[in-house]
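batch job 7 of whatever, protein = Ribosome hibernation promoting factor
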Amino acid sequence: MRYQISGKQIDIGEALQTHVRTEIDSVIAKYPGRPTDALVIFSKSAHEYCCESVVHLSTGLTVQAKGVATEIYSAFDQANEKMEKQLRRYKRRLKDHHKDRSQPVELSSAASYILASSTADEDTEPDSLNPMIIAEIETSIPSLSVGEAVMQMELAGAPLLVFRNDRQDTGVNIVYRRDDGNIGWIDPNATT
């Protein structure tokens, strides 16, 4: 497995890198999915350290976790515990997902844009209805079943996931976490 361990504006020592590799290996070894690479980024904000971990599995799924603590090792341990909890929760589904899928998840390219927020007062009307694009990023849209999409959204800790429904070939679908705690699914081609 490839590791990329780095720090934003802070130095990461060899002892911390060894600790990260050892702990991630021990967590991932318990669960199916053969990891391909791991990205761990440390940063510091005031007196707290933040650790963001992302592990890509060979099946195309991604596990993400974030930890915040006053010590750098504690921040990583917190993120690692969250990652282990996510993997433990989805262990059976990851096994089933691996059996059903003979090929890795197919990814389609798409453009993602970041738009400038409106700084005008709420009482005034905007000058233009065309928002200003401040960043353009290439992103990937996975081809998943609805169950796999919900699992991926939960593993990533994301509020929503855009995906192609590989079971029905209905184009782009969205699963999202509703305010009531349930999961919503938007299928644009479904008829009522």
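notes: The domain at 2-98 is CATH 3.30.160.100 (Double Stranded RNA Binding Domain).
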